[in-house]
Amino acid sequence: MKYKIIFFYILVIVGISTYAHAQTRYQTEIFSSYDLISDIQYGRAIKVNGTAMDLFLDFYAPSGDTVSNRPLVIFIHGGGFKDGDKVSNFGTRVCSRLARRGYVVASLNYRLGTNNTDKGDYEAMIRAVQDAKAAVRFFRKYSNLYRIDTSQVFATGSSAGSITALHLAYLDQDEIPSYVDMGSPGIGGILEGTSGNPGYSSLIQGVISNWGALVDYQYMENGDPPVFCVHGLNDTVVPADSSFSDGPFKYGSIIINQYALSLGVTTGIRLFANTGHTLDNSVAKQDSAIYDFSNWLFTVLKINTVNVDEGSLQYPHSPILYQNYPNPFNPETNLSFKIDKPQAVKLSIYNISGELIETIVDNHLPAGIFSFDWMGKNVNGKNLSSGVYIAQLSSSKLTRSIKMLLAK
Question: Fewer Cβ within 10 Å of end Cβ, the chain: N or C?
Answer without folding.
Answer: N
